[in-house]
Amino acid sequence: MAAKWIELVTGSLEQKKQYRQYQTRLKALPEPYAAAAKALQRYFMYAGGGPEDGEMLITMTGDFTELWERAAADGTPVRDVVGDDPVEFADTFAQAYTGKRWVDKERARLAQAIDDAAGDGR
């Protein structure tokens, strides 16, 4: 019973466990794959490139981890994975995982604040 209450407040414990496992696998990657994955994850975090839904986030993180593990196993150069524009790669990768993103709430909040400040809606 306590586990259900905790999950209600904090989210799925199983999802948290999976997420931590993916993070451990990413940290275990050889260089330069670990550095590239870390940089992309940082971008996802700051650019709002990840979904808000826990299940979708786990799916995205799992696919991301497997992408880098395969690249490392095959010896695929980092540039062959991300291309010439790593920002475009990151944005395209994140967009593949549709759903509500945390930044959507902030965008709506900003639009509402401007509407309220304008008073007349314009």
From TrEMBL:
Gene3D superfamilies: c-terminal domain of poly(a) binding protein. Pfam families: DUF1048 (PF06304). InterPro entries: UCP029876 (IPR008316). It comes from the Bacteria. This is DUF1048 domain-containing protein.
